[in-house]
Amino acid sequence: MAKDTKERILTAALEMFSHKGYEGTNIRELSASLGLVKSGIYKHFESKEAIWNALLDRMIAYYGERFGSAEHLPPVPDSPEDFVSMTMRMVNLTIRDEQIVMTRKVLTLEQYRDERARDLATKHFLTGLTEMFTHILAGMMDKGLIRRDDPAMLAFAYTAPISALIHLCDREPERTEDAIAKIEAFSRHFITVYGVKHDV
Amino acid sequence: MAKDTKERILTAALEMFSHKGYEGTNIRELSASLGLVKSGIYKHFESKEAIWNALLDRMIAYYGERFGSAEHLPPVPDSPEDFVSMTMRMVNLTIRDEQIVMTRKVLTLEQYRDERARDLATKHFLTGLTEMFTHILAGMMDKGLIRRDDPAMLAFAYTAPISALIHLCDREPERTEDAIAKIEAFSRHFITVYGVKHDV
DNA sequence: ATAATAAGTGAACGAGAGGTCACTTAAGTT
DNA sequence: AACTTAAGTGACCTCTCGTTCACTTATTAT
Fold first, then answer.
1. Residue B43's pLDDT is what?
2. In this predicted model, what pLDDT tens digit does every residue of B27-45 receive, in sequence order?
3. What pTM does this model have?
4. Nearest alpha carbon to residue A107 among A115, A96, A118, A97
5. pLDDT tens across B94-121, in order?
6. Mean pLDDT for chain B overall
7. What is the model's pLDDT at position B70?
8. Could you give the count of Cα atoms lying within 13 Å of A120 in the half-sphere of its Cβ?
9. Per-residue confidence (pLDDT) for residue A193, from 0 to 100
10. Are the CB atoms for A63 and A56 separated by under 8 Å?
11. CA distance B106 to chain A (A)
12. Are A105 and B112 in contact (CB under 8 A)?
């Protein structure tokens, strides 16, 4: 309970900021959740704002590692069913992983106040997923699994509805199962609409 | 500068809450923006929370009036071009009307804290638009403008990407023009994909 | 005109915020 | 074992918050 305190503070801060927002979080509670008294935190960070900035650094770095490099792109699916199940695997991860959920929430809450949060929010909510699926859908076009079209447009048309339902899960967790079912239904709808015709 | 003070307080509160959030807003600033001293506000509302609740009442009532009744549904378009231009009219209104923008922002910021904000957020961001376009797309199917399919699924597939770009405008206003162009491009893409084939 | 009520003022209050500091305790180095 | 540094404590500081209250000024009704 010594050297990793800095990391533990950041983890607790993510949780608290994501529940109550930056302004709604106070240092005493944050410290108490770690078993410290509030002045103890100032041995690790010089201010509340410094905690916020370090947390954002960590979120940005994590995003870069996780989604920034080409090597982390999932393989191009081999069939419509494969496409749906890959989607569902990604969706389940992103909805169930508490760390990711809290990251989305905190970005949602602070996007108008902090420029870096704003930029990261756009990546998380819009451009990141779209870029990823632009690559995937382009690969599927090459394999002849879906009709040739603008892959960026298709990726946007595919990911934005999914993203909307992920937001719904963050907002109303009790609707998670419905939302997941709806995502799967949408995924199948999409692959039917854009898939090549099976002239039986 | 007397009887309408209550309304003016709510208007100023919407602006301030949407910029800084509920916690980030303080009564002194709020009063000052109306040319009052802070204690003056307490002649009209008994607490900060009462202002928040009254504002939510107003937002809920406004939403009900504006989008809740069937009579406010736009007419079913007569052509693909009509569909696109109706969409663009609605989008421009919703992006340019400061009142609506601020409402979305405040719902975004307070959705995890307040249950009524949460419910209204879901209507604003997801179900409201979807229901509206379910009706419109069903009408267009009847007119033979688009192929027959599940209108609710199509409405969701159509409105969620538009909603995502509206959120982008709220977050990064400098990208508004790009976003609007992208919405129009998406709208045309959609009507092409789902439109009935023109066998020339 | 006058009485009654509503709207607005300014000083004050208690609570809780973020932050500092002298101090104690634990860990690591030589 | 002695010394140095890091980690954690508790009392205290200042500031700002939301709120109250006795008071003055407008407004309205009769």
1. 97
2. 999 999 999 999 999 999 9
3. 0.96
4. A118
5. 999 999 999 999 999 999 999 999 999 9
6. 96
7. 80
8. 26
9. 97
10. no
11. 10
12. yes
In Å, what is the CA distance from A56 to each residue of A8, A11, B15, B123? 15, 12, 27, 30
Mark the ranges of chain A whose per-residue pLDDT is less than 70: 1-3, 198-200
Q: Give per-residue burial for B67-103: e unless 16+ CB within 10 Å, then b.
A: eeeeeeeeebbeebeebbebbeeebeebbeeeebbbb
Q: Say how far apart CA B191 and CA B81 lie, in whole Å.
A: 9
For A25, which residue in chain B has the nearest alpha carbon? B23
Residue B200 and residue B194: Cα distance in Å, rounded? 17
Q: Tokens standing for A184?
A: 């799967």
Question: Which nucleotide is closest to B2, CA to C1'?
Answer: C7
Note the pLDDT of residue A68: 82
Residues of B with Cβ-Cβ distance to A189 under 8 angstroms = 150, 153, 157
- The whole-number pLDDT of residue A198 equals 59
The 3-class SS string of A132-195 reads HHHHHHHHHHHCCCECCCCHHHHHHHHHHHHHHHHHHHHHCHHHHHHHHHHHHHHHHHHHHHHE
pLDDT tens across A130-183, in order?
A: 999 999 999 999 999 999 999 999 999 999 999 999 999 999 999 999 999 999
CB spacing of A20 vs B190 below 8 angstroms: no
Is A93's Cβ below 8 Å from some Cβ in B? no
B25 to chain A, any CB pair closer than 8 A? The answer is: no
Tell me if A160 and B161 make a contact (CB, 8 A cut-off): yes
In chain A, which residues have their Cβ closer than 8 Å to the Cβ of B185?
153
Q: Residue A139 corresponds to which amino acid?
A: G
Find the Å distance, CA of residue A30 to C1' of nucleotide C29: 33
A146 - beta bridge partners? A195
Contacts of A76 (CB under 8 A, 6+ apart): A135, A136, A139, A140, A142, A143
Please write down the long-range contacts of B75-83, taking CB distance under 8 Å and 24 or more positions apart.
B76/B135, B76/B136, B76/B139, B76/B140, B76/B142, B76/B143, B77/B136, B77/B140, B77/B145, B78/B143, B78/B145, B79/B145, B80/B145, B80/B188, B80/B191, B80/B192, B80/B195, B83/B136, B83/B140, B83/B145, B83/B187, B83/B191
Q: Pseudo-torsion of CA B90, B95, B98, B101, nearest 10°?
A: 110
Closest-lying nucleotide for B41 based on CA to C1': C8
